[in-house]
Request: fold
Amino acid sequence: MDERQRARRPGGRSARVCAQVHQAVTELISEHGYGNFTVGDVAARAGVADSSIYRRWGSLEALLTDVALTRLNTRSPMPDTGSLAGDLRTYAANVAREITGPDGPAVLHLAVALSGNGQQGRQAGDDLRAERMRQLQSMLDRARERGEHAPDAFGVLDHILAPMYIRVLFGMGPLTPDYIDGLVDRLL
Amino acid sequence: MDERQRARRPGGRSARVCAQVHQAVTELISEHGYGNFTVGDVAARAGVADSSIYRRWGSLEALLTDVALTRLNTRSPMPDTGSLAGDLRTYAANVAREITGPDGPAVLHLAVALSGNGQQGRQAGDDLRAERMRQLQSMLDRARERGEHAPDAFGVLDHILAPMYIRVLFGMGPLTPDYIDGLVDRLL
Reply:
């Protein structure tokens, strides 16, 4: 956790405001979809001033990224099963469940939208990916420390995550357990 | 070429209208971006009636797909170099050049947008992918007929196209020749 993230979650009143704002964003996303509401809408729903949101997050894009990352970390935490194959199979299955769930593609569309959305959007998208890649690399480093031969995080992105992401983004049907395990086995 | 496609390009006056409408769509995309214009805008620019466009294409989504496919087939035709490795390297390099060009990500964003855009959009997106996958499969079948051991079209999608698409959609920097050739070599 870097300085900026620590400063965002100091506990007490600040933590309550943060939780209210996250809740407001989650509700607005499910009602209107990503990108169809403003900082003013979030502030009104959360019962805080617009300025509080800008002070803490800096931009709507950074706030959306923070919410997406919190959601990913809660719902798809990095597994620690004791073996690389077990970790990757569990991780891939979690990601597949998340991106094919009821509001699953939303976080993918957010990542795509951020990249095409000016400097603040690109920065927010970069932060989101960098944090998830860092977590993934930790999981792979643990495998290396156990003496297993592990790919790097970009190998996992290219050959496990990217195929699943593209099939969901292009609406190409379900991600079956056989398909997901096949991606993992092929990479290993 | 199936019945419907044959009916769309009968030559003569019809072919001229088709060319004018394609040209109008290309101009509107470069001026406003995919999704930010209507059938009426296309008709006005092309100097034809709205009803001509609906009669020939059925929907804006189907028209956009036809334009995207024509563009892909013109600019990234399937290569025939005499070897599978040569074909895949050339094909991957062409796709990379296309999706990282000045208006390159547009066709990717179109494919993503179509999938999230109701029944007509999904059908148009399915048609676009089915046609490109059919062309890709022909290239792979030629390799098999020469006695080479070829992956199927879905293998190429998952392990060559998807990684490049995701890196472009997420704004993750250039696709270098080494990176692209590495994807091909790994699949083979």
Notes: Chain A has a mean pLDDT of 84.
